[in-house]
Design brief:
By secondary structure, the protein is an alpha+beta fold. The chain is built from three helices and five strands, in the order E-E-E-E-H-E-H-H.
């Protein structure tokens, strides 16, 4: 079994991280009376070292380490079963890797306000001033 990263921009289809590269730690908190409860308070830590990953290319490794650091640690501690926390941690890691591998959005050119928008801003400012003046009159009366 392996961790499948959903395809997206900058991510080849079928990118999978083998389980050998993931370090999973499981623990359960004792329930009331000191008993271990299977369905609540289970904690799953998932750790992935992108710097030494063989599933990623050199450029992908550099991008992931630059954006997320290395190692990447996910902790799932929701009040649910251990298996569901494990699945949630894996899904969160896959989403983080997908986001880190995506290319940055193209830079946007700043736009100058058009004359129409400047006129609307001034009219709105004038309207706010009139509203404040009316509020002052009502309070004074």
């Amino acid at each position: 079994m392996s961790l499948a990263v959903p395809p997206g921009p900058g991510i080849p289809a079928g990118l999978e991280i083998p389980d050998a590269e993931l370090v999973e730690r499981f623990s359960r908190s004792p329930g009331p009376g000191g008993q271990s409860v299977n369905t609540t308070d289970s904690r799953v830590e998932l750790e992935y070292d992108a710097a030494t990953s063989t599933a990623l290319t050199e450029a992908q490794r550099a991008r992931v380490v630059g954006r997320l650091g290395s190692p990447v640690r996910i902790v799932a501690t929701e009040h649910r079963g251990q298996h569901r926390n494990r699945v949630a941690a894996r899904e969160r890691l896959a989403a983080m890797l997908r986001e880190a591998l995506a290319p940055p959005p193209p830079p946007r050119r700043p736009t100058k306000p058009t004359r129409g928008s400047q006129r609307r801003r001034l009219e709105a400012k004038k309207q706010r001033g009139q509203t404040k003046a009316l509020r002052g009159r009502v309070r004074d009366a």
